[in-house]
Write the structure tokens for this entry.
Amino acid sequence: MPITRKEKQLLDSQREIQWIKRQIEQIEQEERANQEAHKYAIPEDATEEHVEESIQETKAKIDELKSEYDMLCQFNKSKEALAKAVDHQYFTLEALYPKPSDHESMEIKRATEEQINTRDEYVVQFMKTLKQLNRKKKELTEIQQKIMRQHEKNKDISTKVETLRSNRRKQNANPEATELLQA
């Protein structure tokens, strides 16, 4: 697709802005370099002693910068070693304790659902059995009540039978009274 006139103008403007920024940076660098150069310029009235002193200061500054550079290099090496150790630890942990994949998590979910369904079936079965047990307990209570009533009836009948037997014995003991009673 060809570039439109407006897009071309935008690109040209962007390039021009970048060129101007580079020019500004270059001018700023030159100014800083000029300022730094004045520090190291040897004045005309300088003696050999001043030059030696300046050389010693420059050497001290260079030594200081070298030691800072060495410290930064050592720091970077330590940081790189630490980063490698962290990477190794991460990969070791991933190898030893892998995160479950989608398939594994689906298997775990499926197994969990099966266990829940089995538990629910057992709960339903338990509730049905409990309901049957309560009905049987009620029937047992009713049967026990019937048995107790029957025992009471049997006791009454036994008492009446005993009374009749004792009356018959008395009657058998007195045959004349029995004949009179029958007449």
User: Anything to note?
Assistant: DSSP finds four helices and no strands in the chain. The CA atoms of residues 150 and 156 lie 10 Å apart.
